[in-house]
Amino acid sequence: MFGSRTQIATLGVGETSRVQVTRTRLGSRIIRLVNAGLTLLGLLVIVVTATPIDSWWASRLAGAWNDPAGDVLIVLGGSILDDGQIGGSSYWRCIYGAKAYAEGRFKHVIVTGGGTDAVPIAEPMRDFLINLGVPRDAIQVEEKSKSTRENALFSKPILSALSGRAVLLTSDYHMFRAQRTFAKAGIDILPRPYPDVQKRAVYWRARWPAFLDLMEETSKIVYYRIRGWI
Questions:
Q1: 201: closest CA among 49, 65, 42?
Q2: Exposed, middle or buried: residue 184 (CB in 10 Å: 0-12, 13-18, 19+)?
Q3: Which tens digit of pLDDT belongs to each residue from 94-118?
Q4: What one-character DSSP code corresponds to residue 53?
Q5: Does residue 167 contact residue 72 with C-beta atoms inside 8 Å?
Q6: Buried (b) or exposed (e) across 73-106, using 16+ Cβ within 10 A?
Q7: Around 123, how many Cα atoms within 13 Å sit in the side-chain half-sphere?
């Protein structure tokens, strides 16, 4: 009987030792994985900060940079602030939209974007375009869309009532998806990207936020492909 108890106690100690070894190995693996992840993150930060990867990536998504002329300029809505004011991307889309209109080539401007329920982004963008010199009667607003796909679908009836060549203006990194979304909706447009990420990538402090925008946009491209929207 005494021997059996001793054997049981010995087995208990051995089992405890094995559990401790297993936990130690698991902890070591977790530490190695964390260190490897931090190392990769550090390398990624260095690559993004010290190389032209942002500019290269945005250029591939933008396509041709030939500023085509046309009759109808479609300006896609971008970011909007909590107070209903236009955000950075919307601001620059208006700036380049007004610049394109000032060249005297376009007869009509369509601003498309819903934004929040309280303030559709297309409305403050229209007002800003007017302040930049675009005549109010030349601007038509589409204010229900909340995605690039809806930009295309909800702009189509407006475009059908207008004649002439349509040109699409949006950020460089957004143009790949936007152009193909409009084409999938049966809308023939010419792309006119403006240098969004390309400008930000000039300053090293802005490269990481630009890189995150590129990552997010690429994930949306994959999603749109899966859904058959491009």
A1: 49
A2: middle
A3: 999 999 999 888 999 999 998 666 7
A4: H
A5: yes
A6: bbbbbbebeeeeebbebbbbbbebbbebbeeeeb
A7: 11
